[in-house]
Write a structure and sequence with these properties.
The protein is mostly beta strands and about 900 residues long. It is built from six helices and 57 strands. Helix content is about 5%, strand content about 55%. Strand 38 and strand 39 form a beta hairpin. It is elongated, with a radius of gyration of 36 Å.
Length: about 900
Amino acid sequence: MRFFSIILIVFCSGVMNGQDISKLVSISFENVDKKTVLSRLENQTDVTFYYLEEWLGEELITKEYQNVTLKTILDDLFSDTVLNYYFLKEKEVVLTSNIVIYDNLPDRFFGEEKDSLVVNKPKQKIAPVFYTKKKSLNEAKISTIKIGKASVYSKEKYELSGYARNFTTGKPIQNLAILVEGKDLVATTDKNGYYLLELPAGENILSTTSLGIADSKKRVILYNNGTLDFDLTESLEVLDEVLLESNRDENIKDVVTGKEQVDVEASKNIPLVLGERDVLKVATALPGITTAGEGAAGLNVRGGKADQNLTLLDDALIYNPQHFFGLFSALNPFTIGKVDIYKGAIPAEYGGRLSSVFDIKTKDARTDKLGVEASIGPVTGNVTVETPVVKDKSGLLFGARGAYANWILRSLDEETLNNSQASFYDAILKYNHEINENNKINATGYYSRDDFSITSDSIYVYSNRAFSLRWDHTFNDKHKGNVLLTNSQYKFDINFDGDSNNDFNLGYSVEETEVKLQMKYELNPMYKFHYGIANKIYQVRPGSIKPDGDGSIVTPFSIPKEKALESAAFISGRFDFTPKFSVNAGLRYSLYNALGEGTQREYEENRPRNEGTVTNTIQYENNKVIETYDGVELRLSSRYIIKPDLSIKAGYSNTYQYIHTLSNNTTVSPIDTWKLSDLNIAPQKAQQYSFGVFKNLNESTYEISLEGFYKKLDNIVDFKVGSQILLNENIETEVLQGEGKAYGVEFLLRKNKGKFNGWFSYTYSRSFVKLDSEFAEERVNNGEFFPANYDKPHDISLVSNYKFTKRFSLSANFVYQTGRPVTFPVGQFILNGSEFVVFSDRNKFRIPDFYRLDLGFNIEGNHKNKKLAHSFWTISIYNVLGRNNPFSVFFVADDGEIRALQSSVFSIPVPSITYNLKF
């Protein structure tokens, strides 16, 4: 074995590098190692090679060369290795492992250029890499790693990328900080454990640090672009205090405009009605999100209707996520892991709604050991159980909640409700299974049901059902995706049992099934893409009525089923053009087909739709296309970071909605029905523009944001005065479609740290509707814009929590809102002996403003690690001020006079106490 262990630097103008390299050689190799290759080259060329055998490796070579120079052969043999070579003399070649032997000095080696020393000046700057193997005793213990292949022609900087994983579990380590000592350079691994650094050529000392991971340090000699992976071990330390900061500066860095997140764990400290934890109620304390009033189901986001929100539970749609007239959420708070709200530029993978997306994800069940969380309060009892199925592989989560709320109705100051009753329950079951590191399956089933009677003769029942099955697959480090199957159903029933012989059962349901393919591709850390396709089938049973009992005289009647197919394809990408400027752009194409079997009417053009203007009735066979609508939707967000704690964002989106609620009530009702777009009812459309400024103060202790928006809507659905909605088979004669517009400014000040924390939000928002027509019966308020039912210009929320100690805290929740619009009677007249009332323009007046203060005192059990269970008490008072906030205003005739009356939900302070247990 020959070896050459001394690095030579030759200064000789008379000896040329590769003096005899022009001689042509013909030779072939078949499955031989590099040592054999060099030996045969020595025999054929009389050249002697000097090297260490350990450098050559065990790779077998199969090559053939015809009439090429020795230099060509060596370049090809060593192209994918770290070996270099140097012609020392005419017949002697020195091999080096990642070392370049120079026979001239680089420019300005002595401080100024020495032309006399330059033999052949290269086209690029020569930058030899020099490093000291041992600087100190401590640094001598640092392992040295050489990356890339040394070259005569080098650059000043190269890219180093790689992957960090837990050596014990094999799972990626995210948020690992990789620091370059003395050079003010740092990188952080992403959620998949990958990082990218741009480093100066030569020696760099890299250190890694992360909570729960042992620190490490490596010396990297960088010759070229390359990779370096980290296999790290966990560190166990006894700490006095650990402070976890989640998504720090996320409000500054996030590119998507109008995005909010609800801290599920922190929501337990916010005092709400009867001590119930409710993430949707917490969302209404954020800017731009409100309700039509206390006890009103549905949310209004940035001036939109309640039916314009897409509420997803593990990707399955929940049509009515409310219990008990909207006082409680139908979503079990103990099972929720994450809540993302999109109210601006909605990402392209979501479609079918105009205003917002509430993307709610449940927790993955524990796979290590049993976990139980339970609570009992004045209204509900709740229990959630997590248990492993296959240890460290799969788990099952089950949550159930039931109510005993009848005493609430009896306590309300309303005689007609004395005999009322109400109950509700919901249940969720989730199974998560990690097949291997590349495949994971999640399945979720959900059901909720409400039974209530607000009179002595009618029982209302409504329910939600949802199911989702998701398979996540990782193809490689850059490409991953999932296949999703969901089914959702909402239905209600009215059972009437009166004193007369007109007892009946009335039922309604809407159901949808969706299959969706989503893919994600990361071209590099700066360019990421998301694309996919989706198909959804709607089935609506608009209603049926049948007699209840043998003596009922009610005639059975059923409206034909509606059916439609909605398909979509989408693509979006995040583009980090510079570290400061990023864009998230997406396109979504949606195609909607209303399908038979069914009957559709045609009406005379330029005439109002009524029984007298029908020109034709068309019968469509099963699955025959009745009408087709389609459209391209653009979703665009951009962010520019002015300073690390200051950014500006702008966004634009246009959306389509093919399904609508039918309601002529002021607020959302559990018996509102859904109607598909068809030959006579067009889909709703919206365009939204937004711009915001986001600022953090005092190391992200405070967040401040100011965001404005403008929204334009078309084909929004409203109804004629006195319209009949329920069981109307020609609903298009009662429907009006018009324009809408909404605009506003949202302000948020949030304190994230310290004993006192919480947020203050203020929203100024307006929402208007315009129903214009050349026909008086289809025109409202003379065809001018008028305030929508949910137009509430001023909305203020203050949520605060003060921690006296780690166990005791005081919370407060204050809400103020402008009263919503109403229509008042303004006069009366007598015609043919009958008295009639004259009403004002629609929504010309407003009910009194709404405000409410809630207080809560939170007591946590001791924080000992070795205890069977951890407890949490909440003592709260809802509506401390006893404000008699009006829910609605109505009018009655009394002795020839019209009197205005108001109804309220809670007009007195409501105390409650809730006990939570977790182990």
